[in-house]
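Forum > Structural Biology > Help requests

Title: Can anyone predict the 3D structure of 3'-phosphate/5'-hydroxy nucleic acid ligase?

Hi all, first post here. I have the sequence for 3'-phosphate/5'-hydroxy nucleic acid ligase but no way to get a structure on my laptop. I'd be grateful if someone could post the structure tokens.
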Amino acid sequence: MDLLVTRKGAIRAGGGDYGIIPGSMGTGS
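Reply #1:
Sure, ran it for you. Structure tokens for 3'-phosphate/5'-hydroxy nucleic acid ligase below:
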């Protein structure tokens, strides 16, 4: 569920960045 939280935070930061941040964490996980 942490990924969902990260996406929300990223969306608030910019919106387009949300695709990059979760992508990196998704690979790590």
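The chain has a mean pLDDT of 56. The CA atoms of residues 8 and 18 lie 8 Å apart.
Shout if anything looks off.
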